[in-house]
Automatic annotation (TrEMBL):
Matches recorded under SUPFAM superfamilies: P-loop containing nucleoside triphosphate hydrolases (SSF52540)
Domain Kinesin motor: 10-354
Name of protein: Kinesin-like protein
Matches recorded under Gene3D superfamilies: Kinesin motor domain
């Protein structure tokens, strides 16, 4: 496929219709989606609503054809200096993760492998070819060297977690910041250098194993978080490492929208469902605002509420920014999923109207330059930190050489005072950390108690009108069970409260 095609200035939308599952066929569900002419990107839902998209793939289309026809050309735009985003959206169980390939396991491509592993193979194939050409041009000083990095994060319960970090779950929590150009980035996110597609596969599998998943009535392995796997290509132009072009490719696997009534979610699953749908609602509002802005010829001041959710902030550059964006809308054709399928198709139809402003990343001029794009900021800061560390080391050595003869009793006394102050601050820090841990444990105990109470109360309230007086539990029995849960909560909390603090343990140790 020719990669020099015109860069699209609107969001490209591809609809993929999954086959009916064995369970759906056994229950007699029929397909409600019809493609009048399969080569055309047109479909009809419920025999009355017609939609036209960039591409439409029926149940018989395999993974390779989806990649070759719709994905490969824009993936290779990454090596031309463009930022690229590929989003998978749809209800839970519609085939988003399967299509993206986030759950890829293995080291070789197979027929059912998704687009992400295929894209990694293509990227390294072309990078290696360019590297060979760069070595031939190195003698003239015009060669370009490439370095590839990857990162993997998830957005769970509206919190950002680093999936490639070696730390524990709570230490992986990250924030979101804006750079000088108004773009959004995640400080502290792990970016790992990878030299082969196989190495990138291993990190993909490692991160996918750390993401939040849980079974529901609609999906045996439902993803309970949005994930973003990013491939970063840094091209160093010529022999000067200070001229760097950075381009990024984002694979966004959105958590599936779901109805609590269908998924039968309760407790933690219900809270996850609420947060997922809240983020997708904010994303839908952003898409509607951008679509209305693109269609309007008079109103040029449409407000786009990116700040309503962390998900929309992370996708700010992909929707209405300078990225080449492809949305993969995955739908279920089964009649019992009709409302969710229509919602997804309408959602995708609005996204077609969004206009982006794709542009190539420009090389950063030098560290002393006063202006830089958001994509160059990390490279600039890395070089700045290296330079400042070197200056700091040299300054420390000079000060140490000048002050060494003057060090005396006063200097030693000052050192002892600083050492004592450091010990005091360390003790205060330990106490604060222990208090924070106690608060988290208390919250966990309360949440567990709520989880045990909720089924008792909700079941009693929801089933009372369908049960006869003989079948329903008596108020005394329900009261007894609730009291047992509360007694267990009080016992666990009292045990936590009586646990000695670090200061008390230190006092006992001295005695």
């Amino acid at each position: 496929m020719d990669t020099s095609t015109t860069v699209p200035d609107t969001v490209q939308v591809v609809v993929r219709i999954r086959p009916l599952s064995e369970r759906e066929l056994a229950k007699g569900y029929e397909s409600v989606i019809v493609q009048p002419n399969p080569p055309e990107p047109r479909l009809i839902a419920r025999n009355q609503e017609e939609f036209t998209f960039t591409e439409v793939f029926g149940p018989e289309v395999d993974q390779l054809e989806v990649y070759e026809r719709s994905v490969r050309a824009i993936v290779l735009k990454l090596l031309e200096g463009f930022n690229v985003s590929i989003l998978a959206y749809g209800q839970t169980g519609s085939g988003k993760t399967y299509t993206i390939g986030t759950s890829f396991a293995g080291s070789r491509l197979k027929i059912n492998v998704g687009i992400l592993p295929r894209a990694l193979v293509d990227i390294f194939t072309h990078v290696n070819a360019k590297q060979r050409g760069a070595r031939e041009e190195a003698a003239t000083g015009n060669g370009t060297r490439y370095r590839v990095f990857c990162s993997f994060m998830e957005l769970y319960q509206d919190h950002v977690y680093d999936l490639l970090s070696h730390r524990n779950r709570y230490e992986r929590l990250l924030g979101i910041r804006e750079d000088v150009g108004g773009g959004v980035f995640v400080p502290g996110l792990t970016e790992l250098a990878v030299s082969t597609a196989e190495e990138a596969f291993r990190w993909l599998q490692h991160g996918a194993g750390c993401r939040a998943t849980a079974p529901t009535s609609m999906n045996k392995e439902s993803n309970r978080s949005h994930t973003i796997f990013t491939v970063i290509v840094r091209a160093c132009l010529g022999t000067d490492d200070e001229r760097v072009t950075i381009s990024k490719l984002h694979f966004v696997d959105l958590a599936g929208s779901e109805r609590a009534k269908k998924s039968r979610a309760s407790g933690d699953r219900l809270r996850e469902c609420i947060q997922i749908n809240k983020g997708l609602l904010a994303l839908g509002n952003v898409i509607s605002a951008l679509a209305n802005h693109a269609k309007s010829t008079r109103n040029n001041t449409t407000y786009v509420s990116y700040r309503d959710s962390k998900l929309t902030r992370l996708l700010q550059n992909s929707l209405g920014g300078n990225s080449i964006t492809l949305m993969l809308a995955c739908v279920s054709p089964a009649s019992y999923n009709l409302e969710e399928t229509l919602s997804t198709l309408r959602y995708a139809d609005r996204a077609l109207a969004i206009r982006n402003k794709p542009s190539k990343s420009t090389p950063s001029a030098s560290l002393d330059s006063g202006s830089s794009s958001g994509s160059d900021e990390l490279e600039r800061l890395t070089k700045t930190v290296s330079r400042l560390r070197l200056e700091n080391t040299q300054l420390r050595r000079r000060i140490s050489a000048e002050l060494r003869p003057a060090v005396g009793v006063a200097g030693m006394a000052g050192g002892k005072h600083l050492l004592a102050q450091n010990r005091l601050l360390h003790g205060q820090l330990q106490a604060s950390l222990e208090e924070s841990t106690r608060i988290e444990l208390r919250a966990s105990i309360a949440e567990n108690a709520l989880g045990r109470l909720e089924p008792l109360v909700c079941t009693e309230l929801s089933d009372s009108e369908f049960q006869t007086p003989d079948e329903s539990e008596s108020p005394e029995e329900l009261r007894r069970k609730c009291l047992n849960v509360l007694l267990r909560y009080r016992t666990e909390y009292e045990a936590l409260r009586q646990r000695p603090t670090a200061q008390q343990r230190s006092t006992l140790h001295k005695i």
